[in-house]
Write a structure and sequence with these properties.
The protein is α+β, with helices and mostly antiparallel strands. Helix content is 29%, strand content 29%.
């Protein structure tokens, strides 16, 4: 069971025209590292949002624990690559680089999975 991330970067997901390409990233973080992850993400997401919208940020509550899922929308796969390059050039993204830059404690990612997705015809997004 996934819940909206318990902090300010988790947006509502109303019906919208986004995508049609979505990147879903699932991180398994070390036990107890969610507060560290939250602190870095809250600092970095405003800058990252300048390059593509964040559709979802969820954490696991039941089942596989210590999971953090975030989903970003892009008009194309090339736009995804461009957004990630531009975000990294700011020094505010990815969160691992930001934590070192601003002196926040880093968090440990035990496993990571990335998927490029497209919505079904019945999807509200």
């Amino acid at each position: 069971m996934m819940l909206p991330m318990p902090f300010s970067v988790s947006p509502e997901l109303p019906p919208a025209k986004m995508g049609p390409y979505y990147e879903m990233r699932t991180y398994t973080h070390a036990a107890g590292d969610l507060p560290k992850l939250r602190a870095v993400w809250e600092k970095g997401v405003p800058e990252r949002l300048k390059f593509s919208p964040l559709c979802a940020a969820w954490v696991s509550e039941l089942g596989a624990l210590n999971k953090f899922v975030h989903i970003w929308a892009y008009p194309s796969v090339d736009a995804r690559n461009d957004a990630r390059t531009k975000a990294a050039a700011t020094g505010m993204w990815p969160p691992s680089a930001l934590s070192k830059k601003v002196g926040l404690p880093g968090y440990e990612i035990v496993a990571q999975e990335n998927k490029i997705l497209m919505p079904s015809a019945f999807s509200p997004i």
